[in-house]
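This section describes the prediction task in plain terms. A model, or a person checking by hand, is given the sequence of a single protein chain and must write out its three-dimensional structure as a string of tokens. No templates, partner chains or ligands are provided. The sample shown here is typical of the held-out split.
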Amino acid sequence: MHKIIFIYITFILIGFCPKLHAQNMATIKGVIKNEDGKILYGVHILNTANSQTTTSDKEGAFLIHCEAGKNITLEFTHIAYQTLEKEFSLKSGQTIVFNPILKENRQSLDEVNIAAQIKLHNKGIYLQTKEIDKIASAGGESIENLLKTLPGVSSNNELSSQYSVRGGNFDENLVYINDIEVYRPNLVRSSQQEGLSVINPDLVSSVLFSPGGFDAKYGDKLSSVLDIKYKNPRRFEASADLSLLGTSAHIANASKNGKLSYLAGFRYKTTRYLLASLDTEGDYNPNYKDFQALINYSFNKKWSLHFWANISKNEYGFKPKDRETNFGTISDALQLKMYFDGQEKDEYISDMEALTLKYHPNSKSLFQLITNRYSTTEKERFDIQAQYYLQDLFISQGGEKDQSLENLGIGTYLDHANNKLEREVNSIKLKADHSFDKLHLQWGIKALHEKVDDRINEWQYRDSAGYSIPSSDTNTGLAYSRQALNSISGTHLSGYTQANYNFSNQTGDFQITAGLRYHHWTYNNTSFLSPRFSFNFVPNWERKMKFRLAVGNYQQMPSYRESLKIDGGISPQLNTQEAWHYTLAHEYLFKIKERDFRLSSELYYKDLKSLIPYDIENVRLRYYGDQKAKGYAAGLEFRLNWEYVPDSESWISLSLMKTREDILGDNQGYIARPSDQRFNFSMFFQDYMPGNPTYKMHLTLIYAGGLPVWVPKLGKQGQSFNMPDYKRADLGFSKELLDTKKNKYKGLLKHFKSMWIGLEIFNLFDINNTVSYLWINDIRGNQYAIPNYLTARKLNLKLSAKF
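The expected answer:
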């Protein structure tokens, strides 16, 4: 009921928002360009009368509300252009359109442009998202698709938004939206079930990603942090997208006085079209949808209130019919045929609400009180029986692909699951920022209560050629069985303090950051401290360079999933995972044929003091919660990015990495971790037709090493091999149909800002990528690894409009 009430109230506010206005106010708006007519993004606009500020958006537009009846001066500044000041005399209710033209700063222009890109305080990768809707991706529009092309980030599954970073796993990544931590699903075992990422790209204004060595102000996870900020709209905007994979729409607006604004987005996604290309044929019925809204209200210059809510429902239905998979080599060509009965029905419902109260006592301090509630109910139900036939085709000896020359195995298996997990998280956090001349202090405290109730009931029965496997003289055994009723409830208390100190001398510009985190969990009465330190340096002898050193301790309290044993029970001994990060980074800017290039390199070592071992299948992690391990990860990363065409960033990434672990007590020593991917090459490239930028092209290319796999019979005590390398290319073409900046339209078309039509080619080279294996036994006890392939080549049509 509270969800319905929330949606109702949201739309009432949306309906009233345009009617709100303030007394004795006026408005100045316009579009900022340079002398060549190029739109300028990120121009800083200052009202000198009251220090009110804003910036121009991606379309060069700005809007600022000022007090009427007074002479005010606006100051327009940009590091590559001369400062422009303009005085205005405003009447109550008046709207003035002013389109400033900024002149280039001719003095040392090249150095100014380069210096604008070297930022001392940057400690991660900032991503541009303005054209994410034109990027071809089988997973649909998502910020995670861009992340997968960055150094250190790995994901061998185009249908999933999950990713691992520098040898970690999916559960080791922090994700924040407007300073609120968001969570990934628990029961999802395959990418087909996963649904929509919680991040709605239509609502995003900025993206910061750090693959390691991040500050103490972020939370307690081992690998990375993704910091998302949603838009704070200043005027009306809207968009709509329609494709074979679903639809999305968003709307935003602000009241005339700027005190009230809203941002809302709806998404619907279905992957039925893509799943039809999998080896297993059947009736796929995936439906994923969510609604998000952000409402902001400013009481005055000091106080403001922000409400964000997200409601999502992901459903996955599947009735398999049959499957045929050819695999092996020419000299050892095999074929698996399977016939199915039964079905699968999964449902994942979640909602999150957050209320943030901000207080600006002055221009140098900010306090935020954030309350947050998250709840999810996940259900996984299936009963599927399969009969299989494994055949040797002897193609090298004249056999045909559809002609079996020898049967290697005949059998049946029955998969059953009836799992249900309920999780609720409530938290309250107070954080503060204080800026001084050279010092920036940050601190925060947080209390979080979490409750999880989980019913696990799943098993698998296998029979080969009439024999139950494993066999027993007294009963029919199961290949595996997990049954448990689990409940965990506990409170997390955490806090941090952090100081950034900036100074300059004849050597260059420096920033030193030091911070400390504290965390206590009442469930197992465990506490820890995590110190973190970083040092940034831009030398005077070469302003095109930046160096960064980071050292820090990162600890991760065991989540519910990490506390589970293989049999489904909760381990009585919960292990806190711990890692020390050592990072050395270098950034260099240079020019080739008047184009700016940025080369970033990073050398890192992660001393993994304490780990919980796990296995991975598709996107499902199975932890050995009653075991403990130690390990390490070491690597070298490179990223070269440039603008091949103006305002369209492209990049190439290369990652070299090795990670190993030693499971204590198994007497095996160090073995590869499940995420041990030795190399990863990726490219994201944008271009448009020379002389006609209405035709654009986007290419995403990934070539990554195969992950290690262990034979199930003996697990990590037995032999392992590597999956085939992951090779993927997605290509997108788009054509602008309407351009209101160059043409004026009448009728309905006058309401559009732009309209694009796109053609996307997924898996351009139609490569069979392996995501996991189905293990088949014959009567002799031999095991065969049958590859589960990902999606084949598919086309997608897309129509996008902005209003």
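For orientation: The helical segments are 2-16, 109-117, 143-147, 191-194, 272-275.
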